[in-house]
Amino acid sequence: MAKARVLIRPKEGILDPQGKAVERALPALGFEGVGHVRVGRMVELEADDPAQLPALCEKLLANPLIEDFEIESLDGA
Amino acid sequence: MVWGVVQFPGSCDERDALHACELAGGEARLIWHESRDLDGVDAVVVPGGFSYGDYLRAGAIARFSPAMEAVAEFAAGGGPVLGICNGFQVLCEADLLPGALLVNDNLRFVCRQVELVDDGDERLSIPAKHGEGRYWAPDEMLDAIEAGGQVAFRYAPGQNPNGSARDIAGVRNEAGNVLGLMPHPEHAVDAMTGSTDGLRIFEALARVGNPA
After folding, report:
1. Residue B105: which of A15, A61, A65 has the nearest Cβ?
2. Does CATH number 3.30.1280.10 belong to domain A2-73?
3. Which residue range forms the structural domain that includes residue B205?
4. In sequence order, what E strands does B146-204 have?
5. ipTM attached to this prediction
6. Beta strand B43-46 pairing with B81-84
7. What is the pLDDT of residues B26-85, one digit of tens each?
8. How far is B52 from chain A (nearest CA, A)?
9. Contact between residue B125 and residue B155 where contact means Cβ atoms under 8 Å apart
């Protein structure tokens, strides 16, 4: 079993209203000077065959039209 | 004319869709998401709701259901398919329609009557209710669908409720037999609820499905 973590984020240039909302909330809590907040998703999984992960990400976990993804191996971490 | 309305776990507008289909003419039946058999229907409606809880992304899991495999084949054979709201999201995820639906730009769930303009410049008043209805596609794809006459509906000027690119509310595929839109024509079929404009969309679909 290979453990992996998939990070999925909105593509650069696509308005991310969730990120904007978080960004706008921060100064009210006293956190100044934080910008370019982007909210994405994180999926952890275990796969018998890690070679299938890229295809699995493109077909289901991410929508390649609107999202970028990266796969991190968690083995030995 | 027999209509099929796909029902996923989490669909919630399938009854209104059945009713609208029947008003437009013919018989309408539900197609359970696990069924791979469309049972000889002449037109398919993928209704609104929150299929499979909208987990991951709206429509992402529904597109892999057995019923959607059958719908994809039906569409490839020229059969008329209408996707409404979540159904539109499912059809985009399934690559049966271009583009994607993103979270509304104002982060609010929209629930109100909107004015649409169709590609024949006719106005329709139809309710919209969604949190993820911001139509988006890369600029070159938007240019291509506009040039190809694939933009079926736009929000009337000043009425775009969600930040959709170029005010697009609904698109069709290149062949013209698959149509998706965010607002809900099935909720606008009875004067009692304010508008019967939605019925025109079902009637147009019936003409495609039943070319008598």
Report:
1. A15
2. yes
3. 2-209
4. 151-155, 168-172, 178-181
5. 0.86
6. parallel
7. 999 999 999 999 989 999 999 999 999 999 999 999 999 999 999 999 999 999 999 999
8. 14
9. no
Partners of B129 in beta bridges: B111
A35: amino acid identity, one letter:
G
CB contacts of B137 in chain A (<8 Å) are 65
How many domains does chain B fold into? Answer: 1
Instruction: Give the integer Cα–Cα distance in Å for B38 and B73.
Output: 10
**How far is A62 from B63, CA to CA, in rounded Å?**
13
Tell me the CATH number at B131.
Answer: 3.40.50.880
Using the beta-carbon criterion (under 8 Å), do A17 and B104 form an inter-chain contact? Answer: yes
- A12 phi and psi, to 5 degrees? -55, 135
The model's pTM: 0.93
Torsion of the alpha carbons at B53, B59, B62 and B63, rounded to the nearest 10: -170
Cβ of B105 within 8 Å of Cβ of A17? The answer is: yes
Q: How far is A3 from chain B (nearest CA, A)?
A: 20
CA-nearest of A45, A40, A56, A60 to A2 is A45
Cβ partners under 8 Å of residue B191, min gap 6: none
Q: Is B212 on the interface with A (CB under 8 A)?
A: no
Judged by a CB distance cut-off of 8 A, whether residue B110 touches chain A is: no
Place of tokens 């209203």: A17
Q: Which of B107, B57, B108, B59 shows the shortest CA–CA distance to B83?
A: B59
Q: Is B132 a catalytic residue?
A: no
